[in-house]
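Give me structure tokens for this 399-residue protein.
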Amino acid sequence: MNFIESFISALTSLFINKMRSLLTMLGIIIGIAAVIMITSIGQGFQASINNEFSRMGALGLQVSMKYDEELTAHDILTLADAELIRTHPNVADIAPYALINGKVRLKNPSETANIYYIGTNEAFSNVQGLDIKEGRFLLPADLDNTASVIVIDANLAKKLFGRTDVIGNTLSAAFSFGNLDLTIIGVYNALNLNSAMFQMPAIAYIPITTWQKISGSEYLENIFVNVADKSSIERTAMEISKLLSLSHATENKYNVENLLQQIDSINNVLGSITAFVSLVAAISLFVGGIGVMNIMLVTVTERTYEIGIRKSLGATNGNIRFQFLVEAIILTAIGGIIGIILGYYGGFALGSIIGITPVVSVPSVLLIVFISSALGIIFGVYPAGKAAKLDPIEALRHA
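Here you go.
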């Protein structure tokens, strides 16, 4: 029996027992679909993070205090430190960063939403790569005049006013010490990470001088630094650290981190999590393979008489083994194809729910196809071998 005859015979056998074939393939289908969905969502989330960090000037530096050290009031970062960092020859721009929690009243006056008010300067839009949708970002004049102005994200604008063209409208900001009316001067597109899966409070930007007036503090949490020459970023980080230590007459109190390294760390963690969850999902592939082996053994028992007839007509052990091996491969291959289709569309369906665009890797799909075919061979070898070893005389007695 040649390959074409074996192929037709295998398909005929599968279609005669449709329900049994479908149940046999179910483990393969679920396993492959789950692996594709998990890997595509995981890679999509990684791509989303990388894109956002690229927008946010991830090739720059982040300056902060070492909070695990014993800090004094003399050690805190201030605007004076930001201006000192600006004097470094490799610093293209700086953006101070200070945060205060608050609330804002939504379109329904009885509803409020948590919001992070970030005090910064005009450079933050460039250093962090904000995408301004309406109006403008902060200007030096806003800082000089301690202006009561604010830049909000598009999602918050819709919650507040039901639209995004809200320039000139007033936002009532609520803090623990009272309320403050702020005029909206700009609307930016919210980060993709602020999805249904990763809900975060809204983020709004106000002049750092206004923030200091609201909070009554000169304290800065971070200073973001955009460097001119990325190739010397590590040396620049060490020099900025020394500069701050000299200015504050202290040692080892400040972190100057390369944000690109943070991306690598996040990608490593996400990659490990995705790989682990995919491995767990792949266990169902093994279970599905055992199901294939079990059904093939049942098939061999049911077709013992047929095997005896084939052998009496001259079929060799190799012919019989090949026939049943082809049936196992076709069974897993069909299950693999269905699993790939379900995993592909299921990934996009899940992604639309949690706000992530899946990234389907062609090498990953090819690997899944290979694994599916390999399962057919691995779990089909034993049943095929058992069928081939049947004695034709004994097989014919099962008539």
